[in-house]
Amino acid sequence: MTEDNWVYVCNTNEIDLEDLKRFDYENKSVCIYKLEDGFFATDGLCTHEQVHLENGLVMDGEIECPMHQGIFDIKTGEAKSPPACEDLKTYSVKIEKDKIFIKL
Amino acid sequence: MGENIVIVGGGQAGAYAINSIRKINTDCYITLISEETELPYERPPLSKECIKGEKKYQDCIIFDKSYYEKNNINLNLNTIVEDVDVKSSKIKIFQNTDVSFDKLLICTGSNNKKIKIDGLMENDIFQLRNIDECKKIMNKSQAVENILIIGGGFIGLEIASSLSKFKKNISVIEIGKQLMGRVIPKEIADIMLVKHKKNNVNIFVDTQILKILKSGNNYEVRLTNGKIIKSEMIIAGIGVEPQVSLLKETTIRLDNGILTNHFCNTSIENIYAAGDVCNFFHPSYNKYIRLESWQHAQKHGSVAGKNIIGKNISYDEVPWMWSNQYDYNLQLTGITNDYDSIVKRGSNIDEGIIYFYLKNNKIRGACGIGKFGKIGKEIKLAGILSKAKKEINENKLSDVNQKLQKI
């Protein structure tokens, strides 16, 4: 279900606070996060070794890769801690009637 | 004029020390001296992707050549340090060239322990520490059918896992009563043992080599359990020792490595050390520990770099390490040998199984195993909880329906 290039992901109540949901769309895999100040989205694969961030820890606005503990800022995608050194791509998110859409 | 900083050892710790220094200070002079001919690279892939030919050295370098040029790092690769003169703050490199320093950081890492077997020469036994040795193992293993691995620790088992992909007949001999016995709890080691057997790797624990007879390119290996194994290639992974030979004649205090405090200072004021080579004081455990892990080398190197240029950061990272074998990922955090209670969480290997080691209702450490990536979050949280020394409800901890983050 798309509207321009905004893609419906799930309803807002499907993601816990300080947690994420994996969303696969065509050949992309994305993570959608719920933080205190809203929903955010990044690429789903760590830029270090392409491990999926789905099982990573969300804490203090950051996502940590579950394999090698590289850390990224969820809002900006910035690589914050090695071995991650390449930033993570981020995506725009909008909420309409409790539905989460991301711009792919 | 900036300070003159010399770093000896071009591994993970040395590279990340440079990185942390340059993030803060662009004035100081930095010289890196490394025995290896290559720029610093990550070693974990050697026993995993590289040995299978899936990754090359270029894929493992930590920072490429342009990084060192751009950051004005004086690189001395393929260079052996012959002497450290603590009193006059100089080191001697080959051809008797002196290199002076204001601050010295030693990150020489560790060396593989050598095994001596009657009737065999050193070149009969392959070992894995660097990219050259990796290439040699890769090439030789492709040309043989039967491979004997001495040592059922991380390296031996990762090599077994990697080479099993090529349908080789692999046998692993382990002297201890379980695999990976030095750091991994038996509960987890036994899960990995079953995995190896399912992949047709022969594992012999509690077993030693009685004798090896060499005939041409073939070895006949007689074991203490009465078995005889035929092999055309022997690989040993029997542990490492800190690389401190350079310092034996100096006044730098050594005891199972270089003794450092939690600021990476050695017993000599302007000399620091980081990574595997250190037996460092860990303030959370109130004792000296020596770690041989990638994460430790990286983080310890980073902290040492910052402290060299005047920061005062206490290193109290919770130990963490991992191993990949087949499609299983094993992770360990904290310490798992000092506990009064064990709590198991999860029973399905696909979702991950974690054992928590508690003392006085507080997590001391945890070790888990699961499909790639599955246990990372909970192991990390276990590390955070152990550092926080928070009392934990064991029933909640064992219940996979209770999010660990909320406990």
> What's the N-to-C terminus distance of chain A?
13 Å
Classify the fold: give the CATH topology of the largest domain in chain B: FAD/NAD(P)-binding domain
Q: Helicity level of chain B, as a percent range?
A: 10-25%
Q: Tell me the series of helices and strands of chain A, N- to C-terminal.
A: EEEEEEEEEEEE
Question: Could you tell me how far the N terminus lies from the C terminus of chain B, measured between alpha carbons in angstroms?
Answer: 53 Å
What's the tally of helices of chain B?
9
Largest inter-chain contact set: A-B, 17 and 19 residues
CATH classification, class level of the largest domain in chain B: Alpha Beta
Backbone shape of chain B: globular
When the domains of chain B are counted, the total is 3
Q: What would the principal axes of the Cα set say about the shape of chain A?
A: globular
Tell me the name of the CATH class of chain A: Mainly Beta
CATH H-level name of the largest domain in chain B... which superfamily? FAD/NAD(P)-binding domain
CATH architectural label of the largest domain in chain B = 3-Layer(bba) Sandwich
Largest sheet of chain A: 4 strands, antiparallel
Contiguous helical run count of chain A: 0
User: Percent of residues of chain A in helical segments?
Assistant: under 10%
Largest sheet: spatial strand order of chain A: 1-2-12-11
